[in-house]
Amino acid sequence: MSVKETVEVTGHLMDSGILSRILDDIREYGGDWVITNIDVGHEAAHTSTATINLTAEDDESLQRLLMRLQTRGVNQVHPGEASIAQADRDGVFPDGFYSTTNLATKVRLEGRWLDVENPEMDCGLVVDLENDTATRIRTLPMSDVRADMWVVTGAAGIRVDIPVLDKGSDFGFMESDVSSEKPQAVLVRQVADGMREAKAHGKKVLWVGGPGVVHTGAAPAMVAMVDAGFVDVLFAGNALATHDIESSLYGTSLGVDLSHGHGVEHGHEHHIRALNTIRKEGSIRAAVESGVLTGGIMHALVKHDKEFVLVGSVRDDGPLPDVHTDVIVGQRAMRGALTDVGFCLMVATMLHSVATGNILPASIPLVCVDINPATVTKLADRGSSQARGIVTDVGLFLEQLARELVPDYRRP
Amino acid sequence: MSVKETVEVTGHLMDSGILSRILDDIREYGGDWVITNIDVGHEAAHTSTATINLTAEDDESLQRLLMRLQTRGVNQVHPGEASIAQADRDGVFPDGFYSTTNLATKVRLEGRWLDVENPEMDCGLVVDLENDTATRIRTLPMSDVRADMWVVTGAAGIRVDIPVLDKGSDFGFMESDVSSEKPQAVLVRQVADGMREAKAHGKKVLWVGGPGVVHTGAAPAMVAMVDAGFVDVLFAGNALATHDIESSLYGTSLGVDLSHGHGVEHGHEHHIRALNTIRKEGSIRAAVESGVLTGGIMHALVKHDKEFVLVGSVRDDGPLPDVHTDVIVGQRAMRGALTDVGFCLMVATMLHSVATGNILPASIPLVCVDINPATVTKLADRGSSQARGIVTDVGLFLEQLARELVPDYRRP
Amino acid sequence: MSVKETVEVTGHLMDSGILSRILDDIREYGGDWVITNIDVGHEAAHTSTATINLTAEDDESLQRLLMRLQTRGVNQVHPGEASIAQADRDGVFPDGFYSTTNLATKVRLEGRWLDVENPEMDCGLVVDLENDTATRIRTLPMSDVRADMWVVTGAAGIRVDIPVLDKGSDFGFMESDVSSEKPQAVLVRQVADGMREAKAHGKKVLWVGGPGVVHTGAAPAMVAMVDAGFVDVLFAGNALATHDIESSLYGTSLGVDLSHGHGVEHGHEHHIRALNTIRKEGSIRAAVESGVLTGGIMHALVKHDKEFVLVGSVRDDGPLPDVHTDVIVGQRAMRGALTDVGFCLMVATMLHSVATGNILPASIPLVCVDINPATVTKLADRGSSQARGIVTDVGLFLEQLARELVPDYRRP
Amino acid sequence: MSVKETVEVTGHLMDSGILSRILDDIREYGGDWVITNIDVGHEAAHTSTATINLTAEDDESLQRLLMRLQTRGVNQVHPGEASIAQADRDGVFPDGFYSTTNLATKVRLEGRWLDVENPEMDCGLVVDLENDTATRIRTLPMSDVRADMWVVTGAAGIRVDIPVLDKGSDFGFMESDVSSEKPQAVLVRQVADGMREAKAHGKKVLWVGGPGVVHTGAAPAMVAMVDAGFVDVLFAGNALATHDIESSLYGTSLGVDLSHGHGVEHGHEHHIRALNTIRKEGSIRAAVESGVLTGGIMHALVKHDKEFVLVGSVRDDGPLPDVHTDVIVGQRAMRGALTDVGFCLMVATMLHSVATGNILPASIPLVCVDINPATVTKLADRGSSQARGIVTDVGLFLEQLARELVPDYRRP
């Protein structure tokens, strides 16, 4: 064990559990540590800074550990200069590429710190050079890298910043613990506050939804929130849109008669016919314009010119003509729709929640609602440390959220 | 295989799945069957009757199979006369005692059919004799039998009747399938209908609740329903009452600050102090009367002179002075409070739900609400075939139920 | 209500619950019924036939009901002749197209019954005509239909057959109930029997797996079963393969150190580096051949020339070069790999299990293993009525299965 | 806010998350803090000490906060002398009584520190006085206090010590995270190591079990571990013992035929008859001695003269004659059996796990195994901070544990 490095981290170190996670990481990566300094003496509301001396077995281990620790907001005290290397084929990063976090990131090249344009986790950092001078640095997923692009390697010359939650604000105060034994009505209000705050700052609200939104009878509540301007972008799969459309065309969703609450398990021909109907029209928008589709969530989004990105999955029937069947193309469309998003609500979908968590900067507040605790914890485990989870009934939650956000909302 | 018997069953045999469960039972018990007759030709709404020839290995197997089948409402075509035997010690039934179902039951003794007074599953049938003539037959749990009591043995001379659900009524139409992907708002309305129907017939509404009622912030909703007369009897443990009282005294429940939704995991001294406070007063009623306890569910029950039965468990702290620490004594108190109950709602408790399911006649409609599907299915598996389950968030469910039942209810 | 039709169904009607599901369907679809005949009088092991008179509101409702009932194996007594219509554009079926089941299906055209080649649910039936005579009928998913193809419309002229489970065989006897409170060791043996039976008949064993196979430490057990010839085809996503390869390259899976059982939540750079490494090699096979990949499940499959189909999802990083990023192309590849499959085991994946259930004929035995009961019940709810579920720990289950199937297997 | 106090805590503050939980508690209790000192500069393996200045609104709040913080191992720098007060009636503590933690505790009276004899959470501290001098201090539950006993009040004069986990040992290194996606086979080995270590130090192994042990077919594995000396004490309810005995007498458990894995949902008369049979014998031991009970877990415990404490619950049938029907009496019996316990394994029971967690000192290692993550997390939330959880299949886990602990164990 002979390689050493000094790192530092600033934040609510004492009361956020972040320090213990940092030290756990060091141990997991086979390293060792001495904390040489922690700020003490100030009030609870202030942030502290800790300085840590790391020891690792060899340089490769150290570089990995440093990259790992950056996901926690830990930077080198003497970051030095970033190294770059050229990709030698499409879709493959150079060896030792720097693997990104979703935190705000700076890269030091030739003595200057450049901001990374679009923080996203698990990407590489591509440097645009003009006359050998870096003009721009952006994250790029592995599949999009092209031969000859310049890519940052190693952990040197990189700084990240963890967002500091404002524990005074109602939303910032939301707990990270996941439990179904919480007073959910209070949490509804906190989510509504987060959305109103985002809108007040001119930001967009992004929804990520699964078919459970429709099955649980929450489509009317969601339509009311689209109408009231609280749904700017929707990320979903083929299922949510198909069941919503099936429900508008036939009054059922996957065979469940939504007005009586009972149902056949899989009224298969309804959803297949709904798919065929929209495919015949050419697109969801075309079906709205031709008067074939007259209600539901997708109809409301089209009517209000809101954006939606539907990405397919291997279990899809159909799919709807609007669905991206290539998942990499779909991911690109999702990235393209993130501009100005200031709040994200994920409801009843593990697949699309994790997919969105992968590409969302850590600075955007994120709430995940599901009746299954595993969905909610998965997201935080995957690196979306800003995620707040609510384990509750999706249908009743959206009903309450609509009552909170839309004063004259009444269940039809 | 040489012992045979002919049995029959009447009900919605075709569309309730009951016939397949009957035949599964026969197979499980090592028997064999030939269906010799089923009514056909009539409308969907009518009941049918099936006649089945059973074969079993020996008489003991046959007797057990017949008892088992009675839990499904299957009777012998030629029931004959019941046999009785005398218990020879306290707390022990005679060998071969008839083990009861929770169905309406008749016993034939000396040519007369007598009604069993209080159907309850897993009991024995005790016969009161006057001058060698049976005057009364009632169920009795094993622990309550006394030496010299006369007890029915074997399956002969016994008839049961399955309640026929009215599939036309809104409540009767409630599905037995358990799923969190159901439009729960519709189910709320069906439960409200069931309660209103019971009250309209002069019956009582029994609630069985766990501490989750308080943790999820639903106490104000439940208080509103107590005030409005929709809670006549409450069965619970030490936990619901203690957390309710803790919440009234300190504004927390198990350390969760209910108005902000965040909390320490276990604010232990609050619940311990709440227990000590009530123990000092002597009882919950005394604490209400002395002005120590001024709000919450237990306060509302006392104020309206509603009955509650609290039965302890091995994990209890305290407990409250009103808690039956002897579980057998507690079961007796619960039995005593079942008179005139016409609807039962179980919320957020597996232990007390199963306990209540054990003693409740099958004729009383029963809805079980929990966020954990296992709680909901357990009940039906244990023999409460009339149970309907709703997998949802308890707090939001009770909030909606209060809005449905109490027109002017507003969340405080 | 004036449209009528007479249908019949043959099977273990009495003891399988199938009849009640049929009658539920009729009610859900707004129809009515009179059962005019049921076979009685024979032994438990024999199948029965029921004849049912249906009434529906109008012809369209009737056609839908008839299609729905065919998913249960119900056929018209007088099926008549099938109608066909031409698709008038790519990817869209003609109005009123017949929506398929996954049951063995026959179509009557010009007085002759033709077998449908590859039963699959939620498809259309495409008829190949030569000189106006049908020579071949096959299922085709909506996205693959081309303009001018002839497609069966309506429910006339179609017969399906439900597979009759042999309740005498050990595997056939496996229960459809899902519970974690079952003696799982017995179920392991039943699954092993099902696999051995398939292999004895010269059939292939298809595995469908999620990343949990690797996280739970079961990769060595699965490798042993690949080596022993019990894994002929694998369907999975990017995650299983990446975590397996990550584990071989670095000894971790998603950051969990598999030999100590503890882990960082998301050791992100490991899996990203594993992806980059294989992308550099060009394919998994190339990585095996170049000596870069020397162990794990994917290595074992390559070594034994076993087939694997990896289909991407929207949450994928990378992905591996072998992954189909277009899900429709991926579905086609899966269909292509179903030939000669005689048993299917699904482990730790809801997405790929449902996707496989969608394309698998009902005649192929299917077992789904997951620690989450919802995954297991979802499959049956989606129409894979032959599915048997086991709720258990995936890692320990595969460990036991390897001990059962591979006599000299020892955990490394 | 004018009341202040200085506290300190020693332990693995940096890498255990304990510091953030302490600061969370202060915030929850409405207090404020300044950290005035933390040890830095030493190696990862060493413990640190932090000094914290607390501010609270008033003295009552401060006393409660200090008691709360003691559950985390936080002590006053200047503890002063303890106060005592006399209980003035049976079963009620004096106002302001000190509510205990499950940590090793000392009380300072008249200048001397006395050790508390049996640390247990949520109790009072009773002081035995001889000639006005304290001779002994012990925890006592609220229900056992008697008028005139001397009880410690307030938080002054009390010190607690948190156990320092040896992160070097295999067992100590076990993670506190709960997940079903862990390599469970590794965890089996760590549990086996923990048991062997306890036995090597002459300590007893305590098992706490639910009926799932029997339903999942694990009884033979558990019997093998009883035979091999790895089960010294068993805490359970009526259900585990009854189903175990039912299984020995009839080969079923709650109607599930354990050798075939299928079952009726509730083969009610079997368990009722098993209860009657043992009640007739008078006790489980009597049934073993008379030759009525010849196999199973309870038989093995009797045969090896191992202790078991069965405590009843409100859902019990019967119960067995050995069951304590009064839960307070049952708790006392459990406390009496804790002597020399050095390891505790909890399997498949939430009720008895929480009950045991309530009375177990924090110094005894504790592992909780259940397929339901909620059971596992509940325990830690209730204050058993030493609890380690494993989410897995109980049957397969015990099977593997038996293979690990009993070299010649073979599944029958």
Structural notes for this entry:
- Four copies of one chain form a homotetramer.
- Chain A is an alpha/beta fold and 412 residues long.
- Chain A is 33% helix and 25% strand.
- The first copy, chain A, has 13 helices and 20 strands.
- The first copy, chain A, has a six-stranded parallel β-sheet with strand order 17-13-12-18-19-20, sandwiched between helices. Chain A has a four-stranded antiparallel β-sheet with strand order 2-3-1-4.
- In chain A, helix 5 runs parallel beside helix 9 (296-303) and helix 6 (238-250) packs across helix 7.
- The radius of gyration of chain A is 23 Å and the shape is globular.
- Residues 168-173 and 260-266 of chain A have low confidence and may be disordered.
- The interface between A and C is large, with 65 and 65 residues.
Which labels suit this protein?
about 400 residues, alpha/beta, six-stranded parallel beta sheet, four-stranded antiparallel beta sheet, about 35% helix
How are the elements arranged and paired?
4 copies of one chain form a homotetramer.
Chain A: E1 3-11, H1 18-28, E2 32-38, E3 48-56, H2 59-70, E4 75-76, E5 83-86, E6 104-109, E7 112-115, E8 124-130, E9 133-140, E10 150-153, E11 158-161, H3 184-200, E12 204-209, H4 212-215, H5 219-227, E13 233-236, H6 238-250, E14 252-253, E15 256-257, E16 262-263, H7 268-281, H8 284-289, H9 296-303, E17 307-310, H10 327-336, E18 341-347, H11 350-359, E19 366-370, H12 373-381, E20 387-391, H13 394-405
Parallel strand pairs in A: 12-13, 12-18, 13-17, 18-19, 19-20
Antiparallel strand pairs in A: 1-3, 1-4, 2-3, 5-10, 6-7, 6-11, 8-9, 8-10, 14-15, 15-16
Helix pairs in contact in A: 3-13, 5-9, 5-13, 6-7, 6-9, 11-12
